[in-house]
Amino acid sequence: MEYLIGIQGQDFVLVAADNVAASSIIQMKHDYDKMFKLSEKILLLCVGEAGDTVQFAEYIQKNVQLYKMRNGYELSPAAAANFTRKNLADYLRSRTPYHVNLLLAGYDDSDGPGLYYMDYLSSLAKAPFAAHGYGAFLTLSILDRYYRPDLTRDEAMDLLKKCIEEVSSASISRRFHLHYLHLFNLFHL
């Protein structure tokens, strides 16, 4: 029922998340925002257990902001992804593990755009496209078939629309938040 998707282009990352907060087959909320702005160039998308998602994402968000205040500069998307993975791994080995699946999207001045896939077992992979949730079972084949590294923004939007139509046709989710990271800007679509 919960669904995250990300598509990386040459100079942008396009991400979307559904608005449903669900547990098993019960939909608890239909206006839930699963995106957390870590910095001006980094966005974290989080799904999983209801309490874990907000608590873990806000913990990462506040620590990334603290890093900027202490050091005078922001973490790169790769550094933020590794910091997030390390914390997720530490909590996995504690008495209070977080059951969350994450996508981290960002833009770095030297490395360009980046999309990072993390699961609840704290595995981390940089990916050109990624999806989490039940909708991933339906849309990863579409992404695999139509994704190209040189996608334009409009082509990426068309690909995202195909994926959302597929998820909507299965009645998993119908409302989505969209964000677009391009160079220095984060846009809400």
Task: Summarize the entry for a quick read.
With about 190 residues, the protein is α+β, with helices and mostly antiparallel strands. The chain is built from 4 helices and 12 strands.
3D architecture notes:
With 189 residues, this protein is α+β, with helices and mostly antiparallel strands. It has a single domain (3-188), classed as Aminohydrolase, N-terminal nucleophile (Ntn) domain (Glutamine Phosphoribosylpyrophosphate, subunit 1, domain 1), CATH 3.60.20. Helix content is 36%, strand content 35%. The protein has 4 helices and 12 strands. It has helices spanning 50-71, 77-92, 134-146, 153-169; strands spanning 3-8, 12-18, 21-23, 26-29, 35-39, 42-48, 100-108, 112-118, 124-126, 129-133, 176-182, 185-188. Strand 11 and strand 12 (185-188) form a beta hairpin. Helix 3 (134-146) runs antiparallel to helix 4. Keywords: Cytoplasm, Nucleus, Proteasome.
Question: What number of domains?
Answer: 1
Principal-axis shape equals globular
What structural class should be given to the helix and strand makeup? alpha+beta
Query: In whole angstroms, how far apart are the ends?
Result: 22 Å
- By CATH reckoning, the class would read Alpha Beta
Supply Rg.
16 Å
Q: Name the CATH architecture.
A: 4-Layer Sandwich
Number of DSSP E strands: 12
CATH topology (fold) name: Glutamine Phosphoribosylpyrophosphate, subunit 1, domain 1
Please work out how many helical segments DSSP would assign: 4
Helix content: 25-40%
Described by strand count, sense and barrel closure, the largest sheet is: 5 strands, antiparallel
Mean of pLDDT: 88
The parts where pLDDT drops under 50 for at least 5 residues are none
The helix/strand order is EEEEEEHHEEEEHHEE
Order of strands across the widest beta sheet?
10-1-2-11-12
CATH superfamily: Aminohydrolase, N-terminal nucleophile (Ntn) domain
Beta-strand residue percentage: 35-45%
